[in-house]
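User: Could you walk me through two proteins back to back? I'd like the raw sequence and the structure tokens for each, with a short line separating them so I can tell where one ends and the next begins.

Assistant: Of course. Protein one, sequence then structure:
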Amino acid sequence: MSAIDTIRVIPANRPAGIIENIAATVRYWADVRATRNELNRLTDRELRDIGLTRGDIERVARGL
């Protein structure tokens, strides 16, 4: 009978795999979308109160 190692310890410093990269991209996309939607719901006056214009929304949503 042969033994198969089914317990694998993944080093903490390993590079992120493709699944983690995809998940991070989806989370980023969802955050940008939610931020963009929330800012677009504000009136021009409310945007002015926080120092933004409609043209700033995309930049702010992407965190640039």
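----
Protein two, same layout:
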Amino acid sequence: MQHRISQSSLYKQCPRLVTHLTALGDVPESAKLPPQLLHLVRLRASQLNHCGFCQKMHADEARADGELQSRLDVLPAWKELSCFTAEERAALAWTEALTLINHVEITDAVFQSALDNFGESGLIELTAVIVQINSWNRIAVSFRFQPDIK
């Protein structure tokens, strides 16, 4: 499938979009959201949004930061597996709820679990990351960005 608009054209034509979306996902150290958790969140949202470009990028980044390929392989089945921590499970549930917001109710239990695991400020930062990746997914899918597969 051929891309509709290239990444370079996006960056050239609308640099403020790139700047603002990038800044939205910049998580301060004070949020205490580990990079490994953020990789899983970004990858899971990209899987749900069928964004092959972002799936490849975030899987590569996760592996580069030490994530196990075996965990990445089973990420879509995170609810059934014990290899994901309670914190990761809360983040993934929150990710799925926000990503699928038009199909799934955000239950009090999902919210409370995320709040209990991350605190108010951490949950707000996590939400910003999820909003960011969902935005990038929509751009990459609609313009048909293609990952560099080697």
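The mean pLDDT is 94.

Let me know if you want the two compared in more detail.
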